Amino acid sequence: VPQKSFRQALNEALHHEMKRDPRVVVLGEDIAGGAGASGEQDAWGGAFGVTKGLLGAFGPSRVRDTPISEGAFIGAAAGAAMTGLRPVAEIMFIDFLGVCLDQIANQAAKFRYMFGGKAVTPLVIRASYGAGTRSASQHSQALYPILTHIPGLKVVIPSDPYDAKGLLIQAIRDDDPVVFLENKLLYDTIDDVPDGAYTIPFGEAKILRDGRDATIVAIGRMTLFARKAAETLASEGIDCAVVDPRTSSPLDEETILELAGETGRLVIVDEANPRCGLAADISSIVAEKAFGALKAPILKVTAPHTPVPYAPNLEAAYLPDAERIADAVRRSFAYRK
Amino acid sequence: VIAMTARIQAITMPKWGMTMTEGMLVAWLAREGDRIVAGQEIMEVETEKITNVVESQSAGLIRRLVVQEGMTAPVGGLLAVLAENDAPEDELEAFIRGYARPIASENAKRAAPTARLISSGQYALNVLSVGEGPATPVVLIHGFGGDSSAWLFNQEALSVARSVHAVNLPGHGGSAPAGSSGLDDMVAAVIATMTALNVDKAHLVGHSLGGAVALAIAASARDRIPSLSLLAPVGLGSEISAAYVDGFLAADRRKPMRDALACLFANGERVSPEMVENALRSKRLDETCTALGSVAATLVDHGRQAIDLRRLLSSIAVPSLVIWGEKDAIVPIRHADGLPASVKIERLADVGHMPMMEAASAVNRALSAHFETAEP
Q1: What is the spatial distance between Cα A63 and Cα A71, in angstroms, rounded to a whole number?
Q2: Residue B4 confidence (pLDDT)
Q3: What does the alpha-carbon distance between residue A95 and residue A89 come to, in Å, rounded to a whole number?
Q4: Residue A208: enclosing H or E segment and its boundaries?
Q5: How many CA atoms lie within 13 A of A102 on its CB side?
Q6: CB atoms < 10 A from the CB of B107, how many?
Q7: Are B187 and B216 within 8 A, CB to CB?
Q8: What's the rounded Cα separation, in Å, for the pair B134 and B146?
Q9: Closest-CA distance of chain B to residue A197, Å
Q10: Which is nearest to A78 in space by CA: A56, A109, A53, A54?
């Protein structure tokens, strides 16, 4: 199986689906041209190079640069989805969610429900997220808890290139609005990615590691740290399962409850802020449905309740890392009822 | 598996299959203080397909179990230490500390042989070739929904003096679909691929649907097939577990796939998470999904086998071996009853539909012996 980057896997997914279905179009800022590249076509492929090559393959009517106005082009994409196209819109940074939230939360997410199931909205909104690139508070957030909160949206957060391709194809073939979030620091990660098109169903967690002593739930880039922590802990004789939900909505409660129940100890890792976050949500579900199986309190390893700092030392302290995750698991073992 | 020093012996992680770089010790079947004999089952190890029992290759007193149940060790890594009671504790400690820990590297995995696409006219089959030597080559043909990795525990063992080619049937394992995915298409594709590989003659080994393909090839290219080995083949009776075929086709998530694959084995709990994941990865591909539906229609018709080759086995004069697990829940072992007296039959107790995995050593011995009797 060929090795490909996360970026390349996403690019292939877009190529496959645009070739397979003429209704698939892409739109967003600088996805066809590029900032500072006057007159040059396909200069950038978007801020992270994901759409590079689509313009040449599918032409300017299906690969459209938009003005810097998320409210306008996300609204256009939602309307196009409802009237027969299958748009994939790119928001450069999920931090810009605020200026188009009405189009997402009040329009796209509500169409199926408010039109009595007579309308479908096959819309994909791709966006980068995450800290660690010295991009400061307005370009570094992990805002998926806000989106996960909204019924009618599906929220996908892939952690490796294989999943990125299969989940994006699934998102494009899905008849509901899907927000697809890509961690900036995963774009250059490499993995086995088949050449052909394939889909991964939503709502099925991936078990990255089996273990019998404790369960670590981690999503997106946090899975890398969770796996590293599990390796460290294995050398100390603590055998951890690591599970990646892959989609925060729908959430694979069953797999998480099963593993948490089997191991009796649960640590949840999330790079989003802690209040009303994904970690808090999963924690509440397990506390409610598997309380009797727990041997220790559920522990969360998250960013603090602060904006993402710009200073490199503070930004490093802001993000969860393998050592903090391993410490949490050790604390879980230190607890005695 | 066993390395010797003057008085202390190491039990290490065995290498099962060409791509294995590390394994999980699922369970110890012996304890510290037990005296074990050669051939005794001492541990269970999880591979990329199933959890299998490992037999000790030497005898002695178990002084230390170094790796706990549930932990992973690299191939060649120290798992336990055998020594007589007169070996002092500090000597054991020094032996364990000084034992070089091999690195389970991704490079080792990448260095394993990989399949290549062999084009021949209208066909393009992915073929994994291993070994070389003067003896007649072997061609291995997997079953419905499988691929060349079905022979993970066999291909290397069979390749001591010959090349062994594991083909991927059309629509499986990266091979292009062929025609309408009928039996004739599969037979023609394998024959054309043998020719493209410059394999004039080959011992044919087929499992399940691959058994029917092998039998049909032997009938149509008699001169090229010195021997035929059929493992739990279809085509010799009418019963088949349509529930398995339907369940496998429908499974797009981990649990249904695990339940489907578990039916293949006498002990379904042995199916490893990696086998489930790999089956899902293969089946998720658009092209596989479409092709498998057509192949299923070739295999099953209204809940019965759609292929009947029983008369062929009586009419061809190719030395034939049939291997069947007594606990086969997919194609019943009674289809091995009443075959011509010239057909050798090997029945394996406590084995399901996958004898080449569940009883790899016994199958490898039976196949090697069968090849020997049929060498020109």
Answers
A1: 19
A2: 46
A3: 15
A4: strand A206-209
A5: 6
A6: 9
A7: yes
A8: 29
A9: 6
A10: A109
Distance CA A303, CA A318 (A): 5
Q: Which residues contact A86 (CB under 8 A, 6 or more apart)?
A: A17, A21, A23, A24, A25, A122, A123, A124, A172
Joined tokens for residue A326: 């391993």
Q: Does residue A23 sit in helix, strand or coil?
A: coil
Residues of A in contact with B287 (CB under 8 A): 196
3-state secondary structure of A219: coil
pTM for the complete prediction?
0.90
Using pLDDT thresholds of 50, 70 and 90, give the confidence band for residue A39: low
Q: Give the residue on A whose Cα is nearest the Cα of B67.
A: A237
Q: Is A292 on the interface with B (CB under 8 A)?
A: no
Residues of B with a Cβ under 8 Å from any A Cβ are 24, 68, 70-72, 252-254, 273, 281, 284-288
pLDDT in tens, B65-101: 999 888 888 888 999 999 998 889 999 999 998 887 7
How far off is chain A from B252, nearest CA to CA, in Å?
7
How far apart are alpha carbons B176 and A212 in whole angstroms? 41
Q: Please list the active-site residues of A.
A: 139
- Cα distance between residue B213 and residue B192, in whole Å: 13
Partner residue opposite A194 with nearest CB, options B68, B252, B285: B285
Nearest CA to CA, how far is A204 from chain B (Å)?
Answer: 7
Write the pLDDT tens digit of every residue in B120-179. Answer: 999 999 999 999 999 999 999 999 999 999 999 999 999 999 999 999 999 999 899 888
Mean pLDDT for A309-321 is: 97
pLDDT tens for each residue of B307-350: 999 999 988 989 999 999 999 999 999 999 999 999 999 999 99
Collapsing DSSP to helix, strand or coil, A324 comes out as: helix
Which two structure tokens, joined as six digits, stand for A277?
A: 């976050």
Distance (Å, rounded) from C-alpha B169 to C-alpha B215?
15
Question: What pLDDT, on the 0 to 100 scale, is given for residue B1?
Answer: 45
DSSP character at residue B169: P
Q: CB distance A196–B287 less than 8 Å? A: yes
Instruction: Quote the distance between the C-alpha of residue A226 and its chain's center.
Output: 16
Task: Mark yes or no for CB contact A210/B286 under 8 Å.
Answer: no
Please report residues of B whose CB lies closer than 8 A to that of A212: 70
Q: d(Cα B272, Cα A291) in Å, to the nearest integer?
A: 29
ipTM: 0.91
A173 close contact with B: CB closer than 8 A: no
Please identify which residue in the block is written with the tokens 């690591």. Answer: A242
A288: nearest Cα among A331, A257, A332, A328:
A257
Buried b (16+ CB within 10 A) or exposed e, A277-314: bbbbbbbebbeeebeebbebebbbbbbeeeebbeeeee
Kindly report the number of other CB atoms within 10 A of residue A214's CB atom: 27
